[in-house]
Write a structure and sequence with these properties.
Length: about 130
């Protein structure tokens, strides 16, 4: 595992938008804008069981997340690694992210659905940064 540099950890701790790239069954990339946070050195992304990000990671756990802060959009951190799927704490994570990103206490887009929240925990294997 590779450590994420201290100078960019604040981007993962703040409500900065990120893009996750996973691998489609065809081998082509799939990208999606996501909310992110971290747990120690791992990057966390919330999604729903059965969505494309989840299915891609189940088939091939290699992925990449890039965060570029809104106040310095020419700077970025890219975290490449492998993801594992977790169930525990998934509802709490999406609610916490919702509060940080929108100010709302609860993520309600899943209310009234059969959606099951999961966490993609990304373990860094390579980290690339550009700070301008």
């Amino acid at each position: 595992m590779v450590a994420i540099p201290e100078e960019v950890l604040r981007w993962l701790d703040a409500p900065e938008f990120a893009v996750i790239a996973t691998i489609l069954p065809s081998g082509r990339p799939h990208q999606a804008v996501v909310w992110v946070t971290r747990d120690g050195n791992d990057v966390l992304v919330s999604t729903v069981k059965g969505r494309r990000k989840h299915l891609n990671v189940e088939a091939d756990p290699r992925c990449s997340v890039i965060v570029y802060p809104k106040d310095s959009p020419y700077s970025y951190v890219e975290v490449r690694g492998t993801a594992e799927v977790e169930d525990e704490g998934a509802r709490e994570l999406i609610d916490r992210l919702c509060q940080e990103y929108t100010g709302n206490d609860r993520y309600t887009a899943d209310d009234g659905t059969d959606n099951v929240r999961i966490i993609l925990r990304i373990h860094p294997e390579k980290v690339v940064t550009l700070i301008r």
